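Entry 14. Structure prediction run on the chain below.
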Amino acid sequence: MKLCFTLLLSISSLLIFSQKRKIPIDTIVITNHSTTIKGINISYTASTGTQPVWNSKDEPIATLQYTYYERSDIKDKANRPILISFNGGPGSASVWMHVAYTGPKVIHMDDEGYPIQPYGVRNNPNSILDVADIVYVNPVNTGYSRMVEDKEGNLPERETFFGINADIKYLAEWINTFVSRKSRWESPKYIIGESYGGTRVMGLAKELQNNQWMYLNGVILVSPADYKLYRTSQPVYSALNLPYFTAAAWYQNVLNSELQKKDLLEILPEVENFTINFLIPALAKGGFISANEQQFVAKKMAYYSGLSEKSILQHNLDIPTSFFWKELLRDETGQTIGRLDSRYLGIDKTEAGSSPDYSPELTMWNHAFTPAINYYIREHLNFKTDVKYNMFGDVHPWDRRNDNTREDLRQAMAQNPYLKVLIQSGYYDGATTYFAAKYTMWQIDPSGKMKDRFTFKGYRSGHMMYLRKDDLISSNDDIREFINNSLSKGKAAKYNKK
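Output returned:
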């Protein structure tokens, strides 16, 4: 008997220790909630689960974890918008907009967007759940989303997921399945992407329309990273940073006193004009610029940026953003300023150097968002697993070749008269600057025939403008207005002669 018991115990121990930590491929947990949004009581369900990505043989090759919020008291789904939400990276989980922007809960922050303890979540009275249902999607290797082994225990090829075009293709397929499962084909559809998510949703607009036959009413780009422009080391990209330099320097109170006494929005149009008409042509001339023109441009750049003429000339008018973050306060306080939000301050080991040691804003956000999302999904949404929630996942190398996403969005808009675009940017974002976002907007449709279908909104904060209370309110209201203005309201999808 004793031998039998020992044998059973050994077998049980082997079974326990032979288990692999895996996320279920296809599962769902549904919970019921209520909240108050804009003074109105809203009841809703939260569906948290996983849904497979299929290959051409209809075999699961990955599973994506999502959270879907659906208002409970709306029966007419045909007129109820649905918003599909992505963050960026590439490699970022869809956590930031989920628990800080559009969702029914937001993390604990002070009014200016700085994290406070205890970490956790609270009701979001500004959520857009009153006007649209929302699904937050985690691409492969982010959040709880993972690749799936085949029968032989092999994972799919990484290039199936990790590249501009691969990412767009499999996500469009996944969205098709999701919309079918949730019976939302009749609903007005919107996609929103932050940062690299901007590239993603520009491409998804055409992929959904042309290969999934799913037509959208709106695309929302939040602090978009346009890789036709971003990190290209071209004169245009460098020049477009100057208005951001002005905004950050104004916030840190280091501009010339003549500018500093003005409101930021009084200054920026002047700087934008100088950038387009003087700085871009000057940088285009490279080393063949005349000494007089170079001196004139350097002096104006110093006036608009808070940097010295000497340092600007030493960089041949081409100022790296990393140098700006290190240099702006070097002689005043010795602190650095944040990359994603230049309101944040950092402390480096030495004041010398050409770039900061770290990003102070991102480290602050990580230590607030990470415990909050883990707590929220487990304790509020009742989705429990031993799999780690990846705030940032392993998705590199990322294939950036054949990026046609800007043109994809133009084609989707041209083919679909209903489709409109909203761009939202923070003035203090030094990673994907607001003026670069404007430039992208201008370049999407060179004909100018669709420019009345674009809307740009700027905010007095950074990359995640919604962390600041005033901007959380206004940016959500801007999405509400955008959704209302892009609904068909009985109008036919057609162009009229002009």
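Residues 27-229+367-486 form a domain with the Rossmann fold fold (CATH 3.40.50.1820).
Filed with the rest of this week's runs.
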